[in-house]
Structures are given as C-alpha cells and as structure tokens.
Amino acid sequence: MSNSQLTPGIVPGRLPADTLACNFADALAPLDAHEAAVAADRCYFCHDAPCITACPTAIDIPLFIRQIATGTPDAAARTIWDQNILGGMCARVCPTETLCEQACVREAAESKPVEIGRLQRFATDLAMKKGHPYRRAAPTAKKVAVVGSGPSGLACAHRLAMKGHEVVVYERRAKPGGLNEYGIAAYKATNGFAQAEVDWLLQIGGITIRNGQELGRDVTLDSLRAAYDAVYLGIGLGGVNALRVPGEDLPGVRDAVDFIADLRQADLSTLPVGRNVVVIGGGMTAVDAAVQSKLMGAENVTMVYRRGRDRMSASGYEQDHAAQAGVKLVFNATPLRILGKDRAEAVEFAYTLDGPDGLQQGGERFSLAADQVFKAIGQSLAGVPPGTTLHAGKIASLPARVWAGGDCTGGGEDLTVTAVAQGRDAAEAIHATLTA
Predict the structure, then answer these.
(1) Which domain holds residue 108?
(2) SS3 track for the chain
(3) pTM (2 decimals)?
C-alpha cells in the first residue's frame, strides 16, 4: 500500500457502490446491429481513403465498413485483425478523433466523421465470441523470447506464433496485458475486456506467458540471446519522471500511473481518493487520473499543465471530456513546491510564459489546496538492457538477433495502436531472418 493510501483524509468509499458502478460503466455504449448499419452507410468507401493512411496499423477501413454494411461483420473483424490483432482494445482506447476519424472525408465536409472506432468495436466484439479465426503454420523449430506482454509484445508474439514459431513471453507483472491491463482508464475497457482479449489471442497456440519475470532481475538479455533464436523487447516505459521540487516525497504525493494501475485492479469502493486532488501534467495519463479521481468522489480536481492548451498531448476530445467530468484545467503554470508538514496540503505554482526563448517562469504565483497530488509528467525507460544504446531516452540500437518496439523505442507516438504496429512489423522481420 502506498503512502498516499495511508494518509489521513485520503479515504475509500466517498461514493456509494451503485454510484461508483454507474460512474465507471462503459464510457460509450456499443452499437447495436441497426446502429452499426446506419453508421456504416455514411462511409463513402473512398478508393484512396485518407483514413487508412492515418491508421498506424493501416487497417483497410473502407473495406471493413463495407463488410459491416453488407451484413458480414465476421469478415470485417478478420480485415481488422489481419492488420491489428488487438483491434478490439484499440477500438476502445485509440484517439480516433486525431487519427482515422480526423482524416475522414465526412469530417472535412461536415465536421462529423464516420464512427470508425465504434464500428471497429462492433465487428470485433461480435467475432470474438465465435472463437479465434487464425491457425498456426507448420512448426519451424525456432524459439523466440518476447519480453513484455503489453500491446507490442502480444502483437509480436501472435504474429510469430501464427507463422509456426514457439514463443515464450516474459512479463514482470502478475497479469499479461501491459498498458491495456494496468494503464488505461477503467471506464474505457469494462468487464475485464483486457484479459478477455489476451485469452482470446492466446487461442492461436504456441505462446507461453511467464509472469513475475523481470528483465535484469529474473532473466538477462544475454541469457535470452543464448537460449532463443531471437529476442523481442516490448518493455514499455516503467520509470516515471520526477517533479524535482521540494515536498515531492510527502505522503499524499504519488505517480499517476500507479494510481491508475491500482484502480484497474481494485474494488473501487476500497480505493482511497482525496477531497482536493491536483494532477500535474498534460497527457492522457493526467486526464485519466484526473477524470477517475472525480468519478471516485473527489470534490475538487484540478489538472495543471505548464504550457498552453494547444501544446497538451491529450487530444481536444479528452480535454473536453475532463472538463465535462468536472475537472478544472489550468494552463501555463509549473509547480514550485508541495506544501505541508506531515502530508501534502497544497501545491505552489508559478505562471509560465512560452515564448521564443522557451518556457520561462513569470513573477506571479498561486497555490491550490491538495491532499492528494498525482505526478503525470511523462515516463522513462526503467533500466537499459546491456548492449543497447539510447537516443532521447529510448532504445536506438540493439545487439544481434534482438528487436524492440512499442513505447521503449522512438519513431512514433506512445499509443496502443502504434505499439501493435511495431510489434507486428518486428515479427515479420524476425520471421524473415529466421527463415532466410
């Protein structure tokens, strides 16, 4: 239990169980068959569809929507999974408003895109109930180690297993799933969907998951390279950036990612939350922590970002969602110190100016009452595997027979869908190398 959970004033059960259940219900109800048909009918089925280019996994979106429109949702799901084996989760968590739907011709013409994400969920949810549609190729006698069972590692493992290789996945946590299981807002993936999708994916066969196995503690990169024909690193970003301000170690201050992970695994009625919550950061983790604090019963929740609204990495849709949930958003302010004697009581900020010379503090200061403070200013690589080199804090080069992808590498946004694409593509490269 964290120091925040032992802090006076940070208590569980601020809301009754039925209210919590309502607050954390499915954020966006799934489409029924009629609604899906109506939504699919709005697609122009563009020949050179910009939505495909905007999708990091390059799903043939017009094709799968046409398949829904013609009454073959199972074929639509197969079209999706051929490119993105975690299409069910991506339909729930992808920022479609800044990817495929933003590129939709309907969005440009009418400011109302085709509901691509909801249609993707409709098809994959239906088809998942019917089992796993893929079969393994003939065994190749090759073995591959995958480190990390997040979206990148799972996508890589599935593609390799489908091609006949034996795959062993090493996962440091008690459950597989990575970000999908531990790192997203609970109302985005309800009813244990993350684990259900993992269970469905493993039906391909040929994949063994070893939980409680951490790189550098239980296994080493050298030992994996010696035991396997290839190694894939999908280790994510396990470290959390520090504020580096006085008072950061006070009880009541914790990392937002830990709060979200606890929330994903806990009985909501037992998870403590403060009355006055301050979240420092401007990304999706900050939004998820802030919104869920409000849904847990916090009276006042404020998200503070050091730059302007247009510089936030959280999309405009997510910013609006936070505001609609009752979160106050404060821009152009940076923390100076966390105030309190035995626990956090307030955070002092300075307003900032973001000009040609970079971010600078202004002279004006203000304080916000806070019995709970969440740090959400970015994550970092936790430990550098030997033989690798870094660029901008991410893996840039690797030893022979080692590949990497997902958040631990550069070359794309830290999104579930990007991680899936990188894991899938690495699997193709590994397969080509092993069968050359």
Answers:
(1) 33-128
(2) CCHHHHCCCCECCCCCHHHHHHHCCCCCCCCCHHHHHHHHCCCCCCCCCHHHHHCCCCCCHHHHHHHHHCCCHHHHHHHHHHHCCCHHHHHHHCCHHHCHHHHCHHHHHHCCCCCHHHHHHHHHHHHHCCCCCCCCCCCCCCEEEEECCCHHHHHHHHHHHHCCCEEEEEECCCCCCCHHHHCCCHHHCCCCHHHHHHHHHHHHCCEEEEECCCECCCECHHHHHHHCCEEEECCCCCEECCCCCCCCCCCCEEEHHHHHHHHHHCCHHHCCECCEEEEECCCHHHHHHHHHHHHHCCCEEEEECCCCHHHCCCCHHHHHHHHHCCCEEECCEEEEEEECCCCCCEEEEEEEEEECCEEEEEEEEEEEECCEEEECCCEECCCCCCCCEEECCEEEECCCCEEECHHHECCCCCCHHHHHHHHHHHHHHHHHHHCC
(3) 0.95
